[in-house]
Amino acid sequence: MSIIHVPGSKSITARALFLAAASRGVTVLRRPLVSDDSEGFAEGLRTLGYRVERGARDWTIEGRPEGPPAAEAEVYCRDGATTARFLPALAAAGEGVFRFDASAQMRRRPLGPLTSALRDLGVDLRHDEQEGHHPITIRANGIKGGQITLDAGLSSQFLTALLLVGPLTDEGLRITVTDLVSAPYVEITLAMMRRFGVEAGREGDTFVVPPRPYQAADYTIEPDASTASYPLAAAALTGRTVTIPGLGSDSLQGDVRFAEVLERMGASVDLAPDSITLTGNGRLRGLTVNMRDISDTVPTLAAIAPFADAPVRIEDVYNVRVKECDRLEACAENLRRLGVPVTTGRDWIEIHPATPRPADIACHGDHRIAMSFSVTGLRTPGITLDDPGCVKKTFPGFHQAFDELRTAWGL
């Protein structure tokens, strides 16, 4: 058995940084994710005038419920979707002129549902080039609050950004959602808001957020459940056993349910309150699975699907087409490079059993494509990545950790 320590959750780290900045007092974040995304978020907060001190294991943030201390700032969001979507909402709650831009990859990703909602709330916001995309300029004068309608069918992050900023508004928010993907991520948001002193309610499809200041906290970041999918899939594929400490049935993250998908495929899973142990038998069963709520693990499943004894069909995942890349097409492209029969539709992919051949994987700058097809390489020698460094977005030490796992398992 191998024990793998997975880095801190990207999603939880981003939310914790926002909540810390929006709170009254000084927050200590313990074991945050240290990666390009989280460092970009912290850098964005510093650019907005917040005091952020980074130690070896803990980060300290001095909050300000009134919004950013800076009266003017230009924030570069890098590739980070949480940075690019959460920080404009935080800036809108303050006073000043704030411009946000991002990488070419992030500029392509949608922002319109969030910025339209902010405009409906009276925020003076302009898309500087292409409507619905970065860069944007906000001339902030606080947010009054009130009732809005939001389509979160492309990303739950639009809803999370509004939920997080709701307590900083004058009157609070009532957010009626017409469509929602990745609902477990919203549950993470609500649970973390409670930890920082604000209880948001829900009335059917409407979320109700009171205008109540957050309070600083001492908060420990749990490991990233999406990142845990790679060693779990590796064990299922190779017939080994792996334990992920710090993640289990008590986890905030919905992606722990990926272990249940692997269990349906034949692996044995022991889900304790604070750990997951998975034992594979080297054989995988085909299945049809709806992954709408755990869509970040779609590439992980796609990468091991050729080794199943029957087709693997993944459904209801249109939103993965607007991630770091079009992940459905990226998975299909790379599977075809490996000689695997695959078909796709608007929101599904079906992968047929095959023996993959060596190939160079096109990562499309997407960390999840690179890490997922590294798992395929455990059973298919000769697989290479055209951009191995893109894993720095969420797991800079991935390749070293995976090599150590391969050695421990004698692969």
Question: How do the strands and helices of this protein lay out in sequence?
Answer:
Blueprint: E1 2-3, H1 10-22, E2 23-24, E3 26-30, H2 36-47, E4 51-54, E5 58-62, E6 72-76, H3 81-92, E7 95-101, H4 104-108, H5 112-120, E8 124-127, E9 136-141, E10 146-152, H6 157-165, E11 173-180, H7 183-195, E12 201-203, E13 206-209, E14 214-215, E15 218-220, H8 225-238, E16 241-245, H9 258-264, E17 268-272, E18 275-279, E19 287-290, H10 298-304, E20 312-315, H11 327-337, E21 342-344, E22 349-351, E23 360-361, H12 367-376, E24 384-385, H13 398-408
Parallel strand pairs: 1-16, 2-14, 3-15, 6-7, 10-11, 19-20, 23-24
Antiparallel strand pairs: 3-5, 4-5, 7-9, 8-9, 11-13, 12-13, 16-18, 17-18, 20-22, 21-22
Describe the structure.
The chain is α/β, with parallel strands linked by helices. The chain is 32% helix and 24% strand. The chain has 13 helices and 24 strands. Helix 10 (298-304) links the parallel strand 19 (287-290) and strand 20 (312-315). The two termini are 14 Å apart. The mean pLDDT is 97.
